Fold:
Amino acid sequence: MRAGKLLRMVNISKRFGRVEALKGVDFDVDYGEIVGLLGDNGAGKSTLIKILTGVFPPDTGEIYFEGKKVSFSSPREAQRLGIEAVYQEATLVNVMNIARNFFLGRELVRWGFILDKRRMARESIEVLSRIGVKISSPRREVSLLSGGERQAICIGRALYFQARLVAFDEPTAALSVKETEYVLDYIRSLKKQGISVVVITHNIYHIYDLADRFVILDHGNKIGDFPRSAVTPQDIIEVIRTGTASALKNGE
Structure:
């Protein structure tokens, strides 16, 4: 693992009208690390990720990626640096096929203007197979896919475009038990490729064996930052329930 941090977010604050969504939050991710970003509804988790991925600008604070100070005015700028987001409702176009969705907004072309549909079909299936996804045809319409298959397309897309960090917002919500296991395995495959991962989830038991570290937010404040070895799932649940880590020996 490389020295230093892949990502550092320092003193991040964000307000929406009278609601203070984030209050001076520090957040970091190591190279090749999986971080569980946890907290109850309204804790500020999704807001922090949307700042990281260029959806919102922070009101205060600084972001450093691979040691360099960065700022994003759009998700596309974050993508150019290798930061990708996978949201609960996979951002796919139902009436398009798998290959077109895989390259949506970053289509492959020939001679500068003709879509290279054959290459997009071939490469999308090759990448999906690398993470264990078996799809009969890249020309299959996305509306016919299961929730787990839709998430897999987003994960494969991040892998293809050489993401350095992928942020997931509730990736297993509304999935079956079997599909959930598939998606968790896909996330593990990203780490094996050296890609760092942040996962927002309400299901502590899904993330516990997956993550190297847990960061807990409460009403816009960071209230805990624990390596997995320092806490049990029950400890994490108690910190979220009480809104404080003071009862834990390693609490912050």
Observations:
- The chain has one domain: 5-242.
- The CA atoms of residues 43 and 218 lie 4 Å apart.
- Helices lie at 45-52, 75-81, 98-102, 117-130, 147-160, 177-192, 204-208, 233-242.
